[in-house]
Amino acid sequence: MGLRGIGAKPLALRFRNREALKQPNPWDKPGLTRAERVMAFCADLTITSGKDASSRLWLRRFQRQFIEAVYREHRGSRPIRTAILSMGRKNGKTQLAAALALCHLCGPEAESRGEIYSCANDRFQAGKIFNEMVALIDHHPWLAARCNIISFQKNIIDLENGSIYSALSSEARTKMGLNPSFVVYDELGQAPNRELYDAMDSAMGARENPLLLVISTQAADDFAPMSQLIDYGLRVKAGDIKDASFYLSLYCAPEDANPWTRKAWAAANPALDDFRSLADVKRLAQQAQRMPAQENAFRNLILNQRVAAHARFIERSEWMACAGPTAIPLGSRVYAAVDLGATRDMSALVLVHQDIDGVFHVQPHYWLPGNVQERVDQDRVPYDVWIRDGLVYHAGDTTDPEAVAIKIAELNGQYRIMTLAFDAWRIADLKRELDGIGCNVQLVPHGQGFKDMSPAVNILERLVVQKRIRHGGHPVLTWNAANAVITRAPTGDRKLDKAKSSGRIDGLVALAMAFSLALIKNDKPVDIEALIG
To answer: Can you give the residue range of the structural domain that contains 289?
Structure first.
């Protein structure tokens, strides 16, 4: 039978090495725990590249700790079903993933007719673990004797137990009909959606002892699949959730750490000054210091912090420091602003109230028109969950000024809306609806250019830094804040830029306008009819 893809060995040549199958294996030594058998298998492999090429795969302490936690046994079974390992780039995750995939294919974790998959976001990334597995097999006579490599399909078949390994990408036409026993997802933090992850996770139910392993740096935003897994894992670690099947190992620099220190680098890179080059991290840090545009990329990829690769208006740590409980007593004076969306855009209404301590309490309201599932897929945020939880109102097929007007009238009955800021966009429709229900809220125009928005942006930024805001951690407003990017005029004035922002910022725009009313603009009435013509 000839070759099985580029670089494969002839079957006849491979079977000459079958004497290797009769040799005792280190992981078969009596008395080893399950985790020790896995580590013995990995340690018997040969490193194929880098400064340690041709030497045995010596597991570092952080790798042994991870394996011991994931493969520990309880009453004869492995409790862990989902394991997350998150750290900075270049800390040997591909090599570890390849070794564990081989362990489940033909090592001590193998089972009869198992299905092992490595998942990635594109074809190139999907091939990296496959290529590493092939290299490990080629340097190990015992593995080479029992594995059939089909290179063009990125498949490996174990001829002894009938198990198969395959590399998958999110571009694969179908992920259904699979029955995985082991899945490793490489760089889930960069995944465009959770379709592949969910397909593999849901397919593991037919196996007795399956394992889904994710090895990745952090994602940039809170609503990415990787972020949701890490947040869940942190709640498990904190004891807020009891889930013995879930394990998280997270290496990242604290948000308040000095990013230019070796201590911060070591927190996110457990292999620093080992196979993770210290000199390379120093070089990247120096470039990030000299070029501020690269700082966030350094924080995300090297320090493994949840930071977008480009500069944001408000730092996550500063925003979340204002997440204390918010409360506006009935009858209180409030200032409001509305950012009314186009026909199919989100709309936002935000109220602010200043308490006797000078702290502003924020109350946002949102409306989303159109097909909810399509919007979930488009914006990659859980609109369906927010609607279910009452954080967003579903506004039908198109933006409905009547629904917004009714909510304004309702809130004006609960509080005293002193003034309501608005953009000229569709204000005639909102004014008509307010008049129709007899709501006489005083409307104040607020421009969206540098002249009006720069003072509003400055106030918003100052109040956040001074921790004089309480937003209650509202997830939609927090999402808006994470998306916000500013544009700067040659004069130095700034404004929030919807076009450059990575997602919707409607609520933050309305919040800035409301603060502008509360602290800058006066309460003089405006001739709205003359303004809208």
So the answer is: 262-311
